[in-house]
Design brief:
The complex is a heterotrimer of chains A (242), B (323) and C (290). By secondary structure, chain A is α/β, with parallel strands linked by helices. Chain A folds into 2 domains: 167 residues, P-loop containing nucleotide triphosphate hydrolases (Rossmann fold), CATH 3.40.50; 67 residues. Chain A has a 6-stranded mixed β-sheet with strand order 6-7-8-3-9-10, with helices on both faces. In chain A, strands 2-1-4-5 form a 4-stranded antiparallel β-sheet, with helices on one face. In chain A, helix 6 links the parallel strand 7 and strand 8. With 290 residues, chain C is mainly α. Chain C has one domain: ABC transporter involved in vitamin B12 uptake, BtuC (Orthogonal Bundle). In chain C, 73% of the residues lie in helices and 3% in strands. The chains are: A alpha/beta (242), B mainly alpha (323), C mainly alpha (290). Chains in contact: A-B, B-C.
């Protein structure tokens, strides 16, 4: 079966700085893939390339067999990809429920249907008690949940999560992991996540792709990747041992 | 909408409908003015309050609509109910042009505001050269009578104009209420709050911003038609002037951008206070032109500094009304 | 059209444009550093013109001499305006800041109307009627002096930003607000200083302008728009751009007035603004703002 997402030898430079160089990897349908690497490795750039924020200089991005590189972000969402932002972007003046309703309107038939769907998702992410509160009043962990809820409301087939665990306590982190596991199991939601919090990566990801200096240096199952010398070198330096 | 608000609204509606029966001609004219600014403010609010695009050139639409309908009436005797279709078409086109140019080229914020000002100013000077519409000397419509209601030609008593404006203002209120609850309302507010996040949720921000601009322009055009037939004279220097644009936005800003009641409240507070000051000064034997404008400026200053979201949100909280 | 007429008009336009440039320079400095859209800029220019009128009427003070007290007064006014009114607004949304200055502008322009009435006022000094002649080309003395003053003031400002410590600190604040704070610069004070300097520029420009045109309160909004057109055409944050923009606008206004029609002057400027906003928003000499 062909992969849901194919990133094919994608390159992107910004004013001479090579952010991503000939990166390739696939995400199979129903899989959870972790994208890891040191800061500045190009992870968010890859996300932005997939999500349509900008187009690659070279290479292609294919989703469900169809080329999506060069599409606008809203078109990418319509194709079935949802994303969160590393620095959360809530609709501050709107309530939690309204925030998620905006997302739900993407596939819902009307406002009432969207609101109903949004309410379900809000409950699922543990924000039910705060649904009428303005988004600006939420704590950071709740804002992260809101970000996820909003993206989920668009009924994506693939969810791009950009460092959602950052700033969460281990308990909160485990809760989030639980939510994603459930979504993946029950609805077959495919997930590609950028993460620094190894706890979450090891708990969630069935495959890992490692980026360094814009290039893919390793990929495979978590156990293999963490023992890969190339990976250890980029994180810990040359003299490190397992 | 909760019961308290609905009740208050019903009361307000009843009071407004009954007003001409008890009001003096002066009060009636002030009330008409308040409704005019409430309407125009509501129209502007769609662009700014809902979609977050600051327009400081709305006088463009008032002027275009006014001249279009007045021109047709003056030269061909075509009544305002037919003329308003041309007005709406022109304003929609103008709004679409400005929106397209701005959004295609990624102009926003201050630059967008300046663009709107530039278009209005450009048109102001341009119309000075249109002889067919009277040029700088102005375009005058004949006031055939003020006794009976001639709705077809909008010639008639002050009461008639009052009710026409009341209908428009009420209509705008209902329209904005419906818009806010619709997909458009959600999408516009999302764009206003964070355009990037809105895009990531599947919203074609260009298309929806265009819609906000076009709806706002089309709504404002009706104010222009009313303006022409109420005042019966149009001068490019006056009608397109930036002061007209600023007058339109004062209501919503003072009352509360993005709210339904903001424009109405702001228009009412501003007009009543301003006229109050003029009356007070007159009673003291002083007649100072320009004091009204200074007053507007000071009120705007105070509101912007201390009540950045306008009067309505604070008032609503105090009165225990939600949203 | 006789070439010497065109040349005379063009030169007059360029010289006037230099004074426009100084006014716009004030705005560029303010907008470039403090990032506040000074919607009251034109009104401030108009007040400066009236100040020169009043000083002339009361003390027969030549505008060139009036420059000093007016500039000092404006510096203080600008400093206080920024420190007292605008600084608290830095973190507010853009349209709030904008509205604040719109409010100030409304109060100022109508205050002027109340104080001076709508009639035009001016100063009358001898050299306004004299000119230098080079062949068939005439240089109005007043225009030449005013332009020279504009250039001198601009050069002084440029030197200040380039060579003094305070000037460099201000540039640092403009380039990177957070970074400047991190290295311990009292950014708010520098903002106030900058607004003061920008206002002083306007003061000088106003004193010079009154030698060239009569003043009415309605000039306020017109000059605000003109200043923005110039700054945007010339390029935000570029001091040379402000002067270049001013010269271009002055020249095009003068030529449009001669070839098309006097009232078409401003139309041309607005058309230029629209074109620049669409196709080269960073202006001719400006840097691209992210």
């Amino acid at each position: 079966m062909s992969p849901l997402l194919e990133v094919a030898t994608v390159s992107k430079s910004f004013r001479g700085l090579k952010a991503v160089t000939e990166a390739s990897f696939d995400v199979a349908k129903g899989d959870i893939v972790g994208l890891i690497g040191p800061n500045g490795a190009g992870k968010t750039t890859i996300f932005n390339l997939v999500a349509g924020v900008f187009a690659p200089d070279h290479g292609q991005v294919r989703f469900a067999g169809r080329r999506i590189d060069g599409l606008r972000p809203d078109q990418v969402c319509a194709a079935g990809i949802g994303r969160t932002f590393q620095i959360v972007k809530p609709f501050a003046g709107l309530s939690v429920l309204d925030n998620v309703t905006v997302g739900a309107l993407q596939r819902a038939q009307g406002v009432s249907a969207a609101k109903r769907h949004a309410a379900e998702i809000v409950e699922r992410l543990g924000l039910g008690a705060k649904r009428e509160l303005p988004a600006s009043s939420l704590t950071l962990p709740d804002r992260k949940r809101l970000e996820v809820a909003r993206a989920l409301a668009t009924r994506p087939q693939l969810l791009l999560l950009d460092e959602v665990m950052a700033g969460l306590t281990p308990t909160e982190c485990d809760q989030m992991v639980g939510v994603f596991r459930e979504l993946n199991r029950a609805e077959g939601l495919t997930i590609l996540l950028i993460e620094h919090v190894m706890r979450a990566v090891m708990a969630l990801a069935r495959h890992i792709v490692v980026l360094n200096h814009g290039e893919v240096i390793s990929r495979g199952a978590p156990e293999e990747v963490v023992r890969d010398p190339a990976v250890l070198e980029c994180y810990l330096g040359e003299e490190a041992e397992v | 909408m909760n019961l308290r608000i609905a009740g208050l609204l019903a009361l307000l509606a009843a009071a407004l409908v009954a007003l001409p029966l008890v009001a003096s001609p002066y009060v009636l004219s002030v009330a008409t003015l308040i409704l005019y600014f409430a309407y125009a403010g509501q129209a502007w609010n769609v662009m700014m309050g809902f979609a977050g695009q600051l327009s400081l050139g709305h006088s463009l639409y008032v002027g275009l609509a006014g001249y279009a309908s007045a021109g047709l009436f003056f030269h061909y005797g075509i009544g305002p109910w037919a003329g308003l279709w041309l007005a709406i078409a022109l304003c929609t086109a103008a709004g679409a042009a400005i929106g397209f140019l701005a959004f295609r080229f990624g102009i926003s914020g201050v630059y967008f505001a300046l663009l709107t000002i530039a278009f209005a100013e450009f048109t102001r000077i341009g119309f000075d050269h249109i002889k067919w519409l009277g040029g700088p000397g102005g375009l005058f419509i004949k006031v055939s009578q003020r006794e009976t209601w001639d709705l077809a030609n909008l010639r008639g008593t002050p009461e008639m104009f009052y009710y026409v404006m009341l209908a428009l203002a009420a209509g705008a209120f209902v329209l904005c209420w419906l818009l806010l609850r619709s997909r458009a309302g959600y999408y516009w507010q999302a764009i206003r709050e964070n355009e990037e996040a809105a895009q990531a949720l599947g919203i074609n921000t260009f298309r929806w911003k265009m819609l906000a601009v076009v709806v706002s322009a089309a709504m404002t055009s009706l104010a222009g038609v009313f303006f022409a037939f109420y005042y019966n004279n149009l001068f490019p220097e006056q009608v397109f002037h930036i002061s007209r644009s600023i007058e339109i936005i004062l209501g919503p800003i003072i009352g509360g951008i993005g709210t339904l009641f903001g424009p109405i409240l702001g228009a009412a507070v501003l007009t009543v206070l301003a006229d109050g000051i003029t009356e007070l000064l007159a009673a003291l034997g002083l007649e100072i032109p320009g004091v009204k404008q200074v007053f507007y400026g000071l009120v705007l200053l105070v509101v912007v500094m201390f009540l950045p979201n306008g009067i309505w949100p604070t008032l609503a909280r105090r009165l225990g009304l939600s949203k | 059209m006789p070439w010497d007429l065109v040349l005379n008009v063009a030169i007059a336009g360029i010289l006037t444009g230099l004074v426009y440039g100084l006014m716009a320079l004030g705005l560029s400095v303010i907008f470039g550093v403090v990032r506040v859209v000074n919607f009251a800029h034109g009104e401030m220019m108009t007040i400066a013109m009236y100040a020169a009128v009043v000083l002339f009427a009361a003390f027969r003070l030549d505008p060139f001499l009036a420059v000093l007290p007016v500039a000092v007064a404006f510096f203080a006014f600008g400093y206080l305006l920024q420190a007292g009114l605008i600084n608290p607004f830095i973190t507010r949304p853009e349209h709030s800041q904008f509205m604040l200055l719109v409010a100030v502008a409304i109060v100022l322009v109508n205050g002027l109307l109340l104080a001076f009435g709508p009639d035009a006022r001016n100063v009358l000094v001898d050299y306004q009627l004299e000119s230098y002649a080079v062949g068939r080309i005439l240089f109005d003395k007043a225009r030449v002096f005013a332009a020279a003053m504009a250039v001198a003031t601009s050069a002084a400002l440029f030197a200040f930003f380039r060579f003094t410590r305070t000037g460099k600190a201000i540039r640092a604040c403009a380039d990177n607000y957070l970074g400047a704070k991190v290295v311990g610069l009292n950014v708010k004070r520098y903002y106030a200083l900058t607004f003061g300097l920008g206002s002083a520029c306007v003061a000088v420009a106003g004193c010079m302008m009154i030698l060239l045109v009569d003043v009415t309160p309605s000039l306020g909004p017109a000059y605000t728009l003109l200043a923005f057109v110039i700054v945007i055409v010339g390029g935000l944050g570029s001091m040379g751009g402000a002067l270049l923009g001013g010269v271009l606008i002055g020249l095009s206004e003068a030529l449009a007035g001669v070839f098309i029609e006097p009232s078409a002057k401003s139309m041309f400027s607005f058309a230029l603004l629209i074109l620049v906003l669409l196709f080269r928003p960073q202006g001719l000499l400006g840097r691209k703002v992210s």
